[in-house]
Every structure is written in C-alpha cells, then in structure tokens.
Design goal:
- About 20% of the residues lie in helices and about 30% in strands.
- The chain has helices spanning about 5-15, 20-25, 30-35, 45-55, 120-125; strands at about 70-75, 80, 85, 90-100, 110-120, 135-140, 155-160, 170-175, 175-185, 190-195, 200-205, 210-220.
- The longest helix is centred in the N-terminal third of the chain and has 11 residues, at about 5-15.
- About 30% of the residues are buried.
- The chain has a 10-stranded mixed sheet with strand order 1-5-4-6-7-12-8-9-10-11. Strands 2-3 form a two-stranded antiparallel sheet.
- With about 230 residues, it is α+β, with helices and mostly antiparallel strands.
- The chain folds into 2 domains: about 5-65, 434 Repressor (Amino-terminal Domain), CATH 1.10.260; about 70-220, Umud Fragment, subunit A.
- GO terms for molecular function: DNA binding.
- Keywords: DNA-binding, Transcription, Transcription regulation.
- This is Helix-turn-helix transcriptional regulator.
- It comes from Candidatus Pantoea gossypiicola.
Length: about 230
C-alpha cells in the first residue's frame, strides 16, 4: 500500500472527510486529495507528522501495510492469489452511510479505496456463500444505530438486494441521502427504526415510496473503536 492509499484508508476508517483531515492538518482540501491520489509525490516531515497526529497513529505507520492473519489489504483490480488459491475480495467503498440524518448525495462519485481479501473458507463462514461481487464494505457515520452499529464502524452490505427483503438493517436512499436504519414491515408501510432511543421512528408508504431506494442489506458490522491502555 503506497502512502497516499494508506492515508486515504485510515481517513475513511475513522469516518473523516477530506475536508476534516485538511482542517486538522492545516492545508487546503486539494492538497489532501492530491496526496491520496498519488499526484503529490514529495512530502515534508512536518506535514507527515501533522497527518499522523490527525489520524491518531505514529508516523511510521504511514509507511507500512495493515494485514492481519485473516485479511490482506490490496489495491489491485486484478484477481489475487495466496498460496496458489483464488481469494475472496471485498471492495471498500469511499462513501459514508449515515446512521443519523443522512450525509451522502447519490450523484457523488463512489470510488473503491482498497479491498480486503479473505481465504474462501473464512469468507464462506462470514458471508454465507454469497459471491464476492455481491458484498461491499462502507463506513458508518452518526449514532442513531448506537448499541448495534457505532459511529465509525464498518458494515458489510449485500448489494444484490434492492427491495425490502424481510425485517433487518438496510442501506437505503431517501431524498438522495444514504441511511443505515432498521426496516420493519407493518400493514401498508415500512417503519424506519433507530436502535438509539433518542431518535424517532418514521415510515415509508405509498405517499413517499418514490423517494426510497434500497442499496443493500447489512449482514455484518465491524467495530473501529480505539481503546487506550496507558
């Protein structure tokens, strides 16, 4: 993973927009964009230290990959292999879905920032035999699903589902905003529920169903919480 991709991946995993990181570092958003896309090839020690501090990491981590025993992070668009076997690859999208009031305009460009690879046995257990082409990961902002999905968590979404498919947590669009909410069918309408009791329920019915579109159903969430131990 090159440094621009690493910074972008870390920024997204922390739920930060380019403008958020730019403010924290004290530069223009265009500078961060050029850095992440590889258009800016040189960096000062001072700017790297500021970026690392904004991302809550040591500067040395900007120059290392982040594989663990179960996953391999990869930016290649080509099929990957490990020990001669095809891997199950999940693309991580550059889009934040709101578990609050909604934050993403669907006309925006959605990029693949990197991918996470699993061996096929592990993937089958995680995703219930779904093909990799049907699974995407995105970041969640907002606290309306707190208790189930926390701000900054990553969610794995079955994007083959584009209609209500039983009660559950969905990624859906309403008035060109993307939301992560629990949907429940009752006679003549769908209730939109938040697991955080501070948020009121609302509904989708014949009067507003034209403003509603299902992007996928949430299968799994992964915590991105950081805990300090000294």
């Amino acid at each position: 993973m090159n440094i621009g991709n690493k910074i972008r991946a870390l920024r997204i995993s922390r739920g930060l927009k380019i403008s958020d990181l730019a403010v924290a570092v004290g530069v223009d958003s265009a500078n961060i964009s050029r850095l992440e896309t590889g258009k800016q090839k040189s960096f000062t020690e001072q700017s790297l230290n500021k970026i690392a501090k904004a991302l809550s990491i040591d500067v040395s981590e900007l120059f290392t990959g982040t594989p663990d025993e179960n996953t391999v992070y990869n930016n290649s668009t080509e099929p990957s292999r490990r020990e001669g076997a095809m891997m199950y690859r999940v693309d991580v999208l550059d889009v934040s879905a709101s578990a609050g009031p909604g934050s993403f305009n669907v006309s925006d460009v959605v990029d693949v920032i990197h991918s996470i690879e699993y061996d096929n046995t592990h993937a089958s257990t995680l995703f219930g035999g779904r093909p990799a082409s049907s699974v995407r990961m995105i970041n969640v902002r907002g606290d309306s699903m707190s208790g189930t999905i926390e701000p900054g968590d990553l969610i794995f979404v079955d994007i083959s589902i584009h209609n209500f498919d039983g009660d559950g947590i969905y990624v859906f669009g309403f008035d060109e905003k993307i939301h992560v909410k629990r949907l429940q069918m009752v006679p003549d309408k769908i209730l939109v529920l938040s697991d955080n009791v501070n948020y009121k329920e609302w509904c989708i019915d014949k009067s507003n169903e034209s403003r509603f579109y299902v992007y996928g159903k949430v299968m799994i969430s992964q915590s991105q919480a950081f805990k300090r131990h000294g």
